[in-house]
Amino acid sequence: xxxxxxxxxxxxxxxxxxxxxxxxxxxxxxxxxxxxxxxxxxxxxxxxxxxxxxxxxxxxxxxxxxxxxxxxxxxxxxxxxxxxxxxxxxxxxxxxxxxxxxxxxxxxxxxxxxxxxxxxxxxxxxxxxxxxxxxxxxxxxxxxxxxxxxxxxxxxxxxxxxxxxxxxxxxxxxxxxxxxxxxxxxxxxxxxxxxxxxxxxxxxxxxxxxxxxxxxxxxxxxxxxxxxxxxxxxxxxxxxxxxxxxxxxxxxxxxxxxxxxxxxxxxxxxxxxxxxxxxxxxxxxxxxxxxxxxxxxxxxxxxxxxxxxxxxxxxxxxxxxxxxxxxxxxxxxxxxxxxxxxxxxxxxxxxxxxxxxxxxxxxxxxxxxxxxxxxxxxxxxxxxxxxxxxxxxxxxxxxxxxxxxxxxxxxxxxxxxxxxxxxxxxxxxxxxxxxxxxxxxxxxxxxxxxxxxxxx
Length: 456
Prior knowledge:
The structure is a single chain. The protein is mainly alpha-helical. The chain has one domain (about 10-445). Mean pLDDT is about 85; it is low at about 1-5. Helix content is about 80%, strand content about 0%. The longest helix has about 35 residues, at about 50-85. The protein contains 16 helices and no strands.
């Protein structure tokens, strides 16, 4: 590795460079989380069975999204470094290979959701009402998976090439339509019948169709570099696919291993009552509203560090990583305090259709999440923002998978089935992994061994 530059990068200069990339991504993720909150409030009015059913159906969607994250994050390593090296052909062939992967994967998930919805929901819950309602939802939302794959992939490409405003603007329109259609279809407005959970699923489908159509229209008008001719997308030089796969497969395994671990944890939580799991679902939705704000800074970190490595400015990559590790704890502790102070207020937005005990437990879980927020966010930036951008995907894989499967899941099983603790304590035991991961990740980044120029 190059000798680290003697003149330290000023933190304020880094922030100025990061914010134009981070704000659109953070705004996009916050909008999505906000709309999910609004949608869940509408669904909550249908009762706790509906909340639980939709949440469990979305566990399969969550697995799918994490596969998309794995494929696109791995490819983003190459796109960011090619962008820093000003190699347009390299960017476009990476996009071509990524599109092949996301289309095949999303089609497989869509077939699973449409052909085996009952088996998927039954994996999490044996409550017949929950299973029936979840199947209704999944049999419609399964059609959205290929649409989500395209919008997710192109959104990732645009952000990595410093065009983050395009997916943000498209999402504002798409999410507005989703919220409006949810209101119309769920409750039966404007002459439509009240369709309940099926209405929520239909609103999601129509919004996704609109999102993809609008995204491609805007990219064509803007003549975006990511919307390349087919011959450029498929122009794979000798050894290219192997090189991408060697770097990408730990990222994909990372996301899939982590999400299956998360699903295993949710299955443990689902062994509690439907009411308890509804509390967890509500608290999780509110927590995500805070957590997703840092997806923007994590994404910006990965792009900026990847650009510097691609431009062969390795000392700047190390300096940027050092600054991120200094800034993130400050911001997340502040957000954690806000979460903790508002933990008794936020769940009240769900009071229509929810029992008082459900809201009380959601408040307790929110306080737990507020304490763990700085650790989880630090790990997000370490693995997704720093290690991946430097091509250190195998260490990131070991850190994430080791955390969830060697610490999180065993601790949750021990707390639930050996100690017989209530839900909030099982969550505390499971989240202990984040503290250990923070210490290991900090050491790895400081070592400098994570910096690799994957494009050659």
